[in-house]
Amino acid sequence: MKYCKKGKHHVPAEGFNKSKKAADGLQSYCRDCQKSVHKETWPGFYEENRDKRVENTTQWKKSNPEKVAAYDKKRYETIKAQTPYPVLPDYKEVVFEFYGASCMKGGSTQDLTIDHIIPIANGGEHGIWNMQVLCRTCNNKKRELDQTDYRPWPRLLDRKVA
Ligand SMILES: [Zn+2]
Ligand SMILES: [Zn+2]
User: Fold this and answer.
1) How confident is the model at residue 158 (pLDDT cuts 50, 70, 90)?
2) How far is CA 2 from CA 19, 32, 37, 113, in A?
3) pTM over 0.70, yes/no
4) What residues pair up with 4 in beta bridges, in sequence order?
5) Ligand 1 centroid to 42 CA: how many Å?
6) In the chain, what are the domain boundaries?
7) What is the pLDDT of residues 16-50, one digit of tens each?
8) Is the distance from CB of 3 to CB of 13 less than 8 angstroms?
9) What's the 36 CA to ligand 1 centre distance in angstroms?
10) Phi/psi of residue 156, each to 5°?
11) Residue 101 C-alpha to ligand 2 middle, in angstroms?
12) Closest CA to 139 of 103, 85, 98
């Protein structure tokens, strides 16, 4: 059992997402509490019907521009805090060059995005060792807290912490 800081309750270790940074390798909020935090930030995200979910999120974004701006700002600051080295403005090109410019899941070469394998929201770092190439379709299917690594050779790029 591990103590969840958010819910102030004890949850079996399997109920926590992994975190490379934590001493025990687990996040400090349990998965359910993480989900509820996320739910408060993005109402409509967990709707069953995906189209409805997207529509609700889009509408919510439109009617809450200041919340979106605050979220973006926070995300930017989190990214900055979790970036151990300066990131070039053209880092996407560098990642495409390094990994090849095709989706690592489905192989598409259209509409490519850079995905953070361990999401930034989950403490993932903004570094090439935590990036993979996914097309927008595959990236959208990957949920916020999903940490699937689609790279064929992930271990070579695990960051060595000095
Ligand atoms: Zn909890
Ligand atoms: Zn794809």
Assistant:
1) low
2) 14, 14, 19, 35
3) no
4) 9
5) 18
6) 1-38, 42-81, 88-162
7) 988 877 889 898 899 888 888 777 666 555 555 66
8) no
9) 9
10) -60, -25
11) 11
12) 103
Find out whether 157 and 125 touch, Cβ atoms under 8 Å.
no
Q: Residue 76 burial (CB < 10 Å; 0-12/13-18/19+)?
A: exposed
Q: How far apart are CA 44 and CA 144, in angstroms?
A: 14
Q: Which residues contact 109 (CB under 8 A, 6 or more apart)?
A: 101, 102, 103, 135
Report the candidate in 70, 74, 43, 73 with the shortest Cα–Cα distance to residue 59.
43
pLDDT digits (tens, 9 = 90+) for 102-153: 999 999 999 999 999 888 878 888 888 888 999 999 998 887 778 888 887 6
pLDDT at 4: 94
Distance 140 CA to ligand 2 centre (A): 9
pLDDT at site 161 = 42
Measure the CA–CA gap between 27 and 34, rounded to whole angstroms: 9
- Looking at the CA of 135, which ligand is closest? 2
pLDDT of 92 > 70? The answer is yes
